[in-house]
Design goal:
The complex is a heterodimer. Chain A is mainly beta. Chain A is 0% helix and 53% strand. Chain A has no helices and eleven strands. In chain A, the strands form two sheets. In chain A, strands 2, 4, 5, 6, 9, 10 and 11 form a seven-stranded mixed β-sheet that branches. The N and C termini of chain A lie far apart (36 Å). Chain B is mainly beta. Chain B is built from no helices and eleven strands. In chain B, a hairpin with a 2-residue loop joins strand 6 (56-59) and strand 7. The chains are: A mainly beta, B mainly beta. Chains A and B meet through strand 5, strand 9 and strand 10 of A and strand 4, strand 5 and strand 10 of B.
Amino acid sequence: DAGVIQSPRHEVTEMGQEVTLRCKPISGHDYLFWYRQTMMRGLELLIYFNNNVPIDDSGMPEDRFSAKMPNASFSTLKIQPSEPRDSAVYFCASSRVGLLSSSGNTIYFGEGSWLTVV
Amino acid sequence: GENVEQHPSTLSVQEGDSAVIKCTYSDSASNYFPWYKQELGKGPQLIIDIRSNVGEKKDQRIAVTLNKTAKHFSLHITETQPEDSAVYFCAASIGDTGRRALTFGSGTRLQVQP
């Protein structure tokens, strides 16, 4: 399998611009997660979906952030307008419902989108 | 919600020595505890995981132990090698309900000195 695919890998944008990050989960996975990683706050869950439906968006920092999952193979995380404090690595991850085995909850991460807002 | 604390934040060992990283969690309902390794410029990669019905699990040089009563779990790496140098994250979640998101610890930067 190709794994979780994210794009772009790197993005540098000016403050106030719209940023769209994209994710293709592993085929057959029904959970999709967006995490943000910074030195100060570590890995934070922003939002996650189950069968394309948002389940918990309590980690989305503010209204400037929005996420969608129009189908099982694609999700976007949008920041509008972007601010310098949004600079971070954004990870998409996916998993599937499994039996109660040690691998049933394995969550696989993409390589991340490195965002710099100047 | 769940809170996961991880110690130490940095760890330096000599090649061949063992390394131990410890985590505690707050939600007694958590039942799934994975460990991830993150190399520079890459996403976290699962290296081992354990469920709450198991006290210990081993995979070659890596082992994880879980103490449900004390709500803590540990990662043990034996015979460390330079390629083990990375940031390691513990995590916890409730895996068999609708709440499946992982809560991560703050990470441990492991440096293995050749």
